Amino acid sequence: MRTFLISFALLSGLLNRDLVHAQTSPTFTYTSKNVMIPMRDGVRLFTSIFVPSQHQDDLPFLMTRTPYDAVQSHDPSHNDYIKDMASEGYIFVFQDIRGRNKSEGRYEMLRPSLINGQVGIDESTDTYDTIDWLLKNIVGNNGKVGMYGISYDGWTTLMGIIRPHPALKAASPQASPADMFLGDDFHHNGAFRLSYSFEYAFSQEASKTDTLFPFNYYDTFDWYLQLGPLSNVNGKYFHSTLPSWNNFVKHPNYDGFWQRQSATARLSSNNVPILNVAGWWDQEDFYGPLSIYQALEKIDKDKINQLVIGPWHHGQWAYWLGEKLGNINFNSNTGETFRKEIQAPWFAYHLKGKGKGFTSEAVVFQTGSNRWQHYDKWPPAAMRVKNLYIHANGKLSFTKPTNKNDAYDYYISDPSHPVPYRNRPIEPTNSKDSRWRAWLTEDQRFVKDRPDVLSWQTDPLEDDLTVTGRILANLYAATSGSDADWIVKLIDVYPENIPVEPTMGGYELMVANEVFRGRYRKSFESPQPIKPNQVNLYPIDLHQIDHVFKKGHRVMVQVQSSWFPLIDRNPQSYVPSIFTAKQSDYKSAIHKISRSERFPTHIQLQVTE
Ligand code: PG9
């Protein structure tokens, strides 16, 4: 089926049942033409332009720039993501970025921006040149341009606001990655996102058009395990032909390569109104939109930076009704609400001067209570910090441990028997019907009985507990090895008996999570071995939530040391680069999580009371 203009990650989802099917009758009929737009260096970019046939007023442009095939763009009035805007009347522009699909030139994954004064091209100059051409060559335009897009297309939108064309009047970067070493698609806190990075590098760089890696296993858990050490990727499969994979190998630490690529480092001033969009259960880029919003807040003297966070997987707000994700119901069509009540009015205001736009600083879907909340600051300021401590016998409570001894819980972490990150079989990320999109909402009971996963939980709550804002895990941990990964999850445990929704009885819903690669505890630039059997504090940013743990539910914290094959296996014996580790470097280790007065492992929550 036609997939409209969507990212690699959204492709498989279009076959899903909860997609929007109802078509409203379009106000305009759109006709399209394809052009090759010349850039300043002579390279021409393929661009598909849709113009409403019977429009009387001059219209603004709405543009997306993508590595995912602009030809897929569908008549805007039949494209769920933008049809509410199509009925208002815009000139829609879809462009293949340099080197992808029908555009000329050389593709470079997340091409770094030119440094001040440097002459050349980057995604910002390509955006500028395209806008300039459109204004001069497409008749009937009102001189204003908006940009929008999800993920990679969100990132190209963000690049548009760097040295922007003066006609760029509104930009909505949605689920844009910000930093590929610290928190988005390729690494989190230095831990390498193996399955995504492997499959994505192949999909984008094996050819000029999207290509799926030909797995000969349905359960890729087994495929990645049989792969053995990471050096086998180039040795057996890629043969050093994929630039992104070669860069992963060449830059195992947070060096200049990653720092130059970081989007937030490029944001030093801004005069374009911005609508940032994030999904609570975004399986690819959740760190990105939140850190981009925060970076823009620091320079937001004109109050033109706004934020939307909904209960969504990566891009769910674009093509889905959004009334549920996996097994979790939200009781309203949150995707439609976004498209009709937020996205369309926001662009209409900034590009057409219509209505009031969308006035809240931050509109956030509060999970658990299933309510949209409006905040004048995000995260909200007046919150109280409360610490949840782990205790003996799997208990979790707001009371600090008083144990004077060396109290801890422990497990054996064995790299040859890693913990799956989701219920097996783990189909390839973008196979038809892949469960990748919803995995963050999967019931965590599937790991409950693993001896290498530790859980602590509160008693059933006597009142609702509303957690809004930042969450920080303070993990005091030791390994008998010399490197280790630490994965911390915050889980909402439903009561065993839920008469109105019996299948949710006892469900364990992850509401926050993160991984930290221990070698980076002092510096992401310069990894260091961990001293065996020494307790270290690992402050792990679990980002933000707005969630009500309902009365009768429990709060659970889980710790484990593998999440395979989402994260590559840590050898647990220190090697300078895990990309060149040998099979014999992978060793079992004893991992201890402390719960004493001196080393009180706890989670800091921001709560309302
Ligand atoms: N998450 C995808 C991505 C963006 C940027 C770089 C690499 C991957 C995407 O869905 O576009």
Explain the layout of strands and helices.
Layout: E1 30-38, E2 44-52, E3 59-66, H1 83-86, E4 91-96, H2 123-137, E5 141-150, H3 152-160, E6 168-174, E7 187-188, E8 191-192, H4 194-205, H5 220-227, H6 231-238, H7 243-250, H8 256-261, E9 274-279, H9 287-297, E10 305-310, H10 316-319, E11 324-325, E12 328-329, H11 334-352, E13 362-366, E14 371-375, E15 384-390, E16 396-397, E17 408-413, E18 453-457, E19 465-479, E20 485-493, E21 508-517, E22 536-549, E23 554-560, E24 589-594, E25 602-608
Parallel strand pairs: 3-4, 3-5, 5-6, 6-9, 9-10, 10-13
Antiparallel strand pairs: 1-2, 2-4, 7-8, 11-12, 13-14, 15-16, 15-25, 17-24, 18-23, 19-22, 19-24, 19-25, 20-21, 20-23
The protein binds D-phenylglycine.
Residues 7-9, 110, 151-152, 155, 177, 185, 200, 284-285 line the site of D-phenylglycine.
Domain Xaa-Pro dipeptidyl-peptidase C-terminal: 344-604
GO molecular function: dipeptidyl-peptidase activity
Keywords: Hydrolase, Signal
